[in-house]
Amino acid sequence: FICAFLLMSCEEQPIEIPEFTVTETGKTVLIEELTGVSCPNCPKGVATIESILALFGENVVTYGVHGAQLTKPKDNSKYDFRNPDAEELEEFLAPFWGKPAASINRVFFANEDNATTTSIELWPEFVNRELQKNQVLDIALDAEYDENNRTATINIGVSALSSIPGDLQLHVGVTESHLIDPQDDINTTIQEFEHNHVLKELVTQLLGDNIVSNISANQTVNRTYSYTVPEENNGEWTVENMEIIAFVTSTESNGEVLQATSIHIK
User: Fold this and answer.
1) For 82-133, how does the pLDDT look when each residue is reduced to its tens digit (9 = 90+)?
2) DSSP characters over 40-63
3) Partners of 172 in the beta sheet?
4) What's the rounded Cα separation, in Å, for the pair 34 and 71?
5) 3-state secondary structure 67-112
């Protein structure tokens, strides 16, 4: 009986996502996942987010933050997903009660201790709630990649659909997917786990770059950034697997995310 129980506990359990009707408001939601390769519960968080992406598609943008907690590589890891930006971002999004945890549009939902929640079963519902809100901003994002110097010129246009009081901050970061490396799971280690949407670096400041105050309806603010991709190393920093994410927060709404988007670098 004990052996059978342990075998069952090691098997990956399917994630059940309630059925939702996706409302076409134009809204795109950001999920910032706090995760780590030495976190045995984190595969469940990853599976939940992948199910959310399958359900809501391009209406959701996500990245995984491998900060300081439970992120030490395994003895046979090829990669170290930790980086200074991820550590600062994890500290900014804390306090949280363990991992996996996620911030969904940086919104403080009722009955949650803060805007970063470990209630995995509620993540889909929180995403759905945010998708019901009216879209107030549009973000145009494109990248021109130069293969000779591995540099991407990132062009961003933020357009207000209605007047928004307060300061707007633009956040830009770079992620990488399809990185195969060990990952702790309950009672085992998955040797060939596919790590996706790993935050590699922030292009803007941690709290974003202030781009405008009291934006008016139909007003557009443009910004251009340059990002050089490090040389490919052991399958890491593969441009074809990398994305640029961009989102806007507002001081008027206590730093909540108003809109997000993402594109492939190449």
Assistant:
1) 999 999 999 999 876 789 999 999 999 988 878 899 999 999 999 999 999 9
2) TTHHHHHHHHHHHHHHHGGGEEEE
3) 246
4) 10
5) CCCCCCCCCCCCCCCCCHHHHHHHHHHCCCCCCCEEEECCCCCCCC
